Amino acid sequence: MNDLQMNDILATVKTYLDGLFEGDTTKIRESFHSASSLFAVAADGKLVNMPREEWCRMIEGRASPKASGMTREHERILSVDITGPNTALVKLNCAIAPRFFTDYLSLIRLDGRWVVINKTFVAETLPA
User: Fold this and answer.
1) Under 8 Å between Cβ of 52 and 58
2) For position 126, what pLDDT does the model report?
């Protein structure tokens, strides 16, 4: 791993977190590959597989955390694992209260830039 790779990966993650907080799907689309999807296990135990564009429509249909007066105090990058010149995994925490997320972002380097190709997450809803 070198500092340039790390800086580029962290820049992609920052763009994602900025987009999520601001409700800015331009930033989401910039940081996530067009073929990317989000995966989780729903409360009923079934697989959630949400393509990027479906997720963007959902983001566009709700008030952003920023517009709702939320803070970014729960955002934390927990680990970055770079496993070659073109693959990395980032684990992070973020929140859209009352939901608190742990995200696993799989990134690939294409055409000289890092993009998220897959997001696997778990969300915990805390009581108010």
Assistant:
1) no
2) 80
**What's the chain's length in residues?**
128
Query: What end-to-end distance do the CA atoms of the chain give, in Å?
Result: 42
Q: In this structure, what DSSP letter does residue 29 have? A: H
Please return the burial class of 36, using the count of CB atoms within 10 Å of its CB with bins 0-12, 13-18 and 19+: buried
Q: Which residues of 87-104 are buried (b: 16+ CB within 10 A; e: fewer)?
A: ebbbebebbbeeeebebb
Q: Is the pLDDT of residue 75 over 80?
A: yes
Dist CA 62 CA 85 (whole Å): 37
3-state secondary structure of 27: helix
Residue type, 85: P
Q: According to the model, what pLDDT value does residue 20 have?
A: 97
String of DSSP letters for 60-107:
HTS--TTTTT---TT-EEEEEEE-SSSEEEEEEEEEETTEEEEEEEEE
